[in-house]
Design goal:
The protein is mainly beta. It has 2 helices and 8 strands; from the N terminus they run E-E-H-E-E-E-E-E-E-H. The longest helix has 15 residues.
């Protein structure tokens, strides 16, 4: 088995190296639960369009949901996992195999962390999805005062 990246064996997390983490959000770390799926559903294989949300997939074959930690730290997604297998060969000699995974990436700035989900398929595909916040409508941004001003600037209107 091949290890990718690194994580600490005592379960503690290293400081975020994600450049987009906002200073105001750096203490808000959210751990997402990893849901184990019973089948490889087509929804996991599908793509999410950039305008509707975010999706990240990674290969985590052999890991259980309990061995994976998926965290959102400000504007950064971090996935870490560690597992060890021990056993005996037919000739009686023992072996130990350690496997680690680590992936870190920046999240879109308008992503809603409360709407993120994480699932693991039987084939080992870890899928993290999130929806972007709906931007306010142009009317909500300008407010009713702008509409009143625009009506008052029409020709023939009287200003007091």
């Amino acid at each position: 088995m091949q290890g990718v990246g690194s994580s600490l064996s005592n379960g503690s997390q290293s400081a975020s190296r994600c450049p987009s983490v906002a200073f105001t959000e750096q203490n808000q770390v959210t751990t997402l639960p990893v849901q184990q799926l019973t089948a490889d559903v087509a929804a996991v294989r599908g793509n999410v369009h950039a305008e509707s949300g975010f999706q990240m997939k990674m290969y985590a074959h052999g890991f259980t949901p309990e061995e994976l930690v998926v965290q959102v730290d400000g504007g950064c997604l971090m996935v870490t996992g560690q597992r060890q297998l021990e056993g005996c060969d037919p000739d009686g000699s023992g072996f130990r195999v350690a496997q680690k995974v680590h992936q870190q990436m920046s999240l879109p700035p308008d992503l809603d962390p409360a709407a993120m989900t994480c699932c693991l398929t039987p084939s080992g595909q870890l899928c993290v999805r999130g929806q972007c916040r709906v931007p306010p409508s142009p009317e909500a941004q300008t407010g009713p005062a702008s509409r009143l001003r625009s009506r008052g600037s029409k020709k023939g209107s009287k200003l007091a």
